[in-house]
Amino acid sequence: MDLSERRRCPAGQVVKSCIEGKTNKDWIKESGERKSDAANDKKICRNAQTSLDRSIKRRWRVEKQTENKEKTIKRIKNEKRQIEKESQAEKTSEDEKIKRRRFEGGDIEKESQAEKKTNEDKMIKRRRFEEGEIEKKSQVEKKTSEGKSIKKRAVEEGQLQKERQAKKKTSKLERIKTSQVAKDDKKIKEDNSKERNLEQNEGNSRRSRPEDLLEGGSIQKRPRLDIERPAPLDSNNYKFHTVLGQGGFGQVMLASFRPNKQLVAIKILKKQKNDCYSIAKEARVLKISRECAFLCQSHATFQSELEAFFVLEYASGKSLWQMIMREGGLPMSTIMFYTAEMVVALQFLHSKGIIHRDLKPDNILVDKDGHIKICDFGIAEENIFGQRKTYGLAGTPGYRAPEILLKEDYNTAVDWWSFGVTMYEMATGELPYSTSGSILRQRYMILNKTPKYPCYMSEEMLDLLPKLLEIDNTKRIGQNGNIREHPFYSTINWDDLENRRLKTPFQPEMPSADDLDEYPLTFSPHSCDGKNLKDFSEVDPNWNWQE
């Protein structure tokens, strides 16, 4: 082995090649082969590793895909279950709705038609109201003309009867005179013979005779000891003019008290067996209402055989309903003034244990000074104090509280619901909930829908109305919390309001009794038999009927 070859190879290889007797070229070949084999082995290992890695990655991807597939399958199954549950729930809710619709007579399906009908009804009401006023004027004119003709006939017939009676009286007096002269002649002859007996007979006869002789032979009848009625308790002392209101209960007439021509409103009710209790209850409530300036005042109550009469103060400003129908909606300042007076009246009634149960614009009048008067206590309830409640369907559709529609026991909170509905109607000219359909539909509308609050309402009113129209009566303002402290009434001086010292929105005119025609009416005679109501007839001591 040359030095050049030894330098190229390592020492060990030189030793091996020397021992084996191989040449440097052979060694180089073997080393090249070994290197190539090693490189091939490395490549093979790398390829195998890469294939393993790839297979592992594929397996990992496959496993991930399977896991994702399983997850997606589970998710899809869960979504399907949820969709099935929701569909079943929707079906059940739809079935319940269908049942409700069938139960309610299909009224819920016709809500749009009902709303259209309500709008049409309001237009028809307004037209009827206008036509009714025209008809009332024409009827009043007809009745006045008929009344005048009836009056003329009655006067003529009365004159004829008086003339006939006068003729009969004159003929009777002449007969009595002639008979009395003859009797006197006989008595004079007998007196000359029997003076003492005649004196005794005359004393006895004066005690026993019901009539005495006057000069000329005329007869003077002794006055009968009849008990005279006070003037306010006799229907003949009132002159009736026009009909203010009429219904199944009876009618309300505008009348004047004949002695002083004071205008009053007389409510005439028919006395029936089922109505005697409510008539007596209304009389009791009217007596209590004399203590509040914003409740209708009763001047007197009396009765006949078939009728009961309530003599009430006459409110010449008419009702809030007529104002709403005329103007469509009232200004906020007017609403604040009238509703504040209503708050005082309701709080007074509730402090006395009385629920009105029919509060609405029809039953809120405006008197001659421009202040409100709550009237019509025909269905009021008494003795509701503390936790005590009452029950029963009462009130006008549209103004009934939800607890009345749900046939639950209720208390004074129902008046605050009606108060909220009245305030809403004063502001918008409409009711917050539709009144068409059955009681079940009205209940559904109140429980599931909220009224529309116009943008022109003040922030204070927008805060107050939902608190008044609260379905939970224990949370309803007025029943829970003092409504006087609400920001809507922040500018009200309650002391001046209660004493009627605040300026009213307007002051109506008071007509004169001389300018009104008489409306002829006939009533059953006054009687004191068992049919009359006990302790019913009375006169308010504060009524100056004698002036």
Give a description of the structure:
The protein has 547 residues and is of the alpha+beta class. The chain folds into 4 domains: 100 residues; 84 residues; 112 residues, 2-Layer Sandwich (Phosphorylase Kinase, domain 1), CATH 3.30.200.20; 191 residues, Transferase(Phosphotransferase), domain 1, CATH 1.10.510. It is built from 13 helices and 10 strands. The chain has a 6-stranded antiparallel sheet, covered by helices on one side. A hairpin with a 3-residue loop joins β6 and β7. α8 packs antiparallel against α10. The longest helix is centred in the N-terminal third of the chain and has 83 residues. It is rod-shaped, with a radius of gyration of 51 Å. Keywords: ATP-binding, Kinase, Nucleotide-binding, Phosphoprotein, Serine/threonine-protein kinase, Transferase. InterPro entries: AGC-kinase_C, Kinase-like_dom_sf, Prot_kinase_dom, Protein_kinase_ATP_BS, Ser/Thr_kinase_AS. GO terms for molecular function: ATP binding; protein serine/threonine kinase activity. This is Protein kinase C delta type-like.
